[in-house]
Amino acid sequence: MKRLTKLVLLLIALLIVALAYGLLSSWAPDRSVADLKPRWAPAPSMFVAVDGMLVHVRDQGRRDDPTPIVLLHGTSASLHTWEAWAAVLQDKHRVISLDLPGFGLTGPFPDGNYSSAHYTDFLVHLLNQLQVTQAVIAGNSLGGQLAWQFAVAEPARVSKLILVDAAGYPRSSNKVPIGFRLAQFPALAPLMTKMLPRSMIESSVRNVYGDPSKVSAALIDRYYELTLRAGNRQALIERFKQTEAGDSYQRIAQIKVPTLILWGGLDGLIPPINAEHFKRDIKGSRLVMFPELGHVPHEEAPLPTVATVQQFLDE
Asked: Which of 64, 211, 213, 303 has the greatest CB tally within 10 Å of its CB?
């Protein structure tokens, strides 16, 4: 009996040690912008004061372009997701990319408001600050939703629209990154804002790629470190809490500007049926499907996807 008791106590001790090791290895406190800037904000990065924030922006390419291309990333991403597109497009165009509030080096909205209308107002204020009166608006996922909502709210300011696996319609996801799932449980918020296993970020990024083998260690580093930016984890939790249900997608049919729809055929987060809905509701729009790609085709295969964009812009 004594031997059994000792064995149980030993197992409990080992379990406590394992849990302690897991907690310590996953412990990830916030990191300051000053700490992250040297690696993630080299030239041509700049910080623009908008709505009480210093917004991380890259403004590249031709200064004489009357209708710049504005690139809007998705949830938990950053302007870096567009860098391969920007490198190609800047030869002929002015290309503006940014870290949306709540993500990247920009960090959270000061007022904690993550409604769609608030994001639209923010984009209006940023473009005013950059003296952009009209632009081609392109967006992926959350950024795609902001792009089409901006086109509805400010139609005179949008010359063309590019939607890349954009959010908007009610959807039945069959592949949701683990980080997104956990962020939707308020009870886990205290842990999520202090702990961040790198393996969870790796799993989440691989989840949205059509070919997970394309996900490099450097790519995981980028997503991981920028998630640690002070306030970003709490902002993600707040944004999911404030997700708006309803019929706002019915406004998509109001869009009249030339629209290109790009989609990854293996997107499980926002499945390809949503691309068909955009094509149906935006009259005259063009849909290009990339069967082997996932939720971030512009990042997974930038050259073939940007070639389609170049053709669209040249027309």
From this structure: 211
- The conformation of residue 103, written as its DSSP 8-state character, comes to S
Nearest to 82 by CA among 157, 154, 162: 162
Indicate the SS3 state at residue 290.
strand
**Cα–Cα distance measured from residue 174 to residue 160, given in angstroms and rounded to the nearest whole number:** 31
**Tokens read off for 41:** 């904000």
- 136 has which bridge partners? 69, 160
Q: What's the pLDDT tens digit per position in 265-312?
A: 999 999 999 999 999 999 999 999 999 999 999 999 999 999 999 999
- E strand or H helix at 72: strand 69-72
Interval 9-54: pLDDT, tens: 444 534 443 333 344 446 789 999 999 999 999 999 999 999 999 9
| Cα 246–Cα 251–Cα 256 angle in degrees, nearest 5 | 165
